[in-house]
Amino acid sequence: MNNLTAREKGFMYVITLLIIVVLAYFFGIRTLNKKYEEYKVELQTLQDRKAYLDQLRENNASMASEIEILKSSCVDLELSFIDKLETDCIEQYLLKTFETAGCPFLVSIGAADQGMSPVTYPDGTPANESLSCLQIEVVYSSTDGYTVTQYNRTPDQTRGSKTNVAETIADLAGKMGQGEYAKRRGYNEFLTALKKINADNTDCIKVSNIKVEESNGALTLTATIDFYGVNLVNRLSVDERTDAYTFWTGHTNVDTKGGFVGFPYVCDNKNSLWYGISNNEIDPNLGKPFAAYWASALFKLQYDEAGEDLKTLINFEGETTPTPTPTPAAT
Predict the structure, then answer these.
(1) Which of 4, 96, 199, 208 is spaced 20 to 30 Å from 265 by Cα?
(2) DSSP states of 242-274 as a string?
(3) Residue 111 CB neighbour total at 10 angstroms
(4) Around Cβ 172, how many Cβ atoms within 10 Å?
């Protein structure tokens, strides 16, 4: 090396430097460039993954919002039906509504379950959920515009009344066809009650049929009312309604020791609130469920005595011609 000239030594230094540069490129810069490209690809992959996850998160939030909207729709749909169809609650709700509207003279009330079509899924398989319908038929009577009326014990003509029964009957007998008894009431009140019932829950209470017939000077008013419910397997909602047709709001702890179901021709049970009073339907030809038993009998007596002439004394649009005060029936 010492024998090399300065020129040769310089050339060797240059060669050595080039080798070092080449080695540095192959083992340093080139390797770093390759790593850089790999890192760029990995970065792009991570950025794409992040964009996907961000989009997925947004979709999840949107889907969660849509799920809540669907749940809310399901809850609204569930609550559009009555949770439990309790016949006793529904009947007492109807009777109270008619009574409040001024139509208290009930003739009969009956309930029947209606068969509903099964629910099927789009693939044709039957669903576990089902629709139910309880149909109530009520029959009421209007007054006849002449006969004295009686509702429950008003006026009270039982032995436990505060006023003398004979005097009460004598006083009322003279009012046959007069004042409040001269107007036939019940029809407008019947319709008022039905309108309220139909408006109480437009989703699941439907007045499906109304019939009006003339009967012995009064009107027989019949209505069919449908109550819809649904039987669900996995219910989302909790029905917290306190409407009268969903739970019992009538009297409780009623004393029934004097009898409660059925009514004999003459009540002789001293424990009964009806002790000493006769049934309205002693004469099946009378057909006046709105009237006191003696008033029905008195009307029939007057009719039998007056015959066709009595018909001309009664105008069922509300006007009456004064009639002589009749002699009250024996009590």
Answers:
(1) 96
(2) --TTTS--S--S---TT--S---SB---TTSTT
(3) 16
(4) 20
Contacts of 249 (CB under 8 A, 6+ apart): 89, 92, 93, 96
Whether 142 and 232 have beta carbons less than 8 Å apart is answered as: no
> Cβ distance 192 to 210 under 8 Å?
no
CA 265-266-267 angle, 5° bins: 120
Cα of 166 vs its chain's centroid, Å:
46
What is the strand order of the sheet 205-215 is part of?
A: 106-114, 130-141, 218-231, 205-215
Do 323 and 177 touch, CB atoms closer than 8 A?
yes
Contacts of residue 255, defined as CB under 8 A and 6 or more positions apart, other chains included, come to none
What pLDDT digit, counting tens, does each position of 46-102 carry? 888 888 888 888 888 788 888 888 888 888 887 888 888 889 999 999 999 999 999
- 251 and 95 Cβ atoms separated by less than 8 Å: no
- pTM flag (> 0.90): no
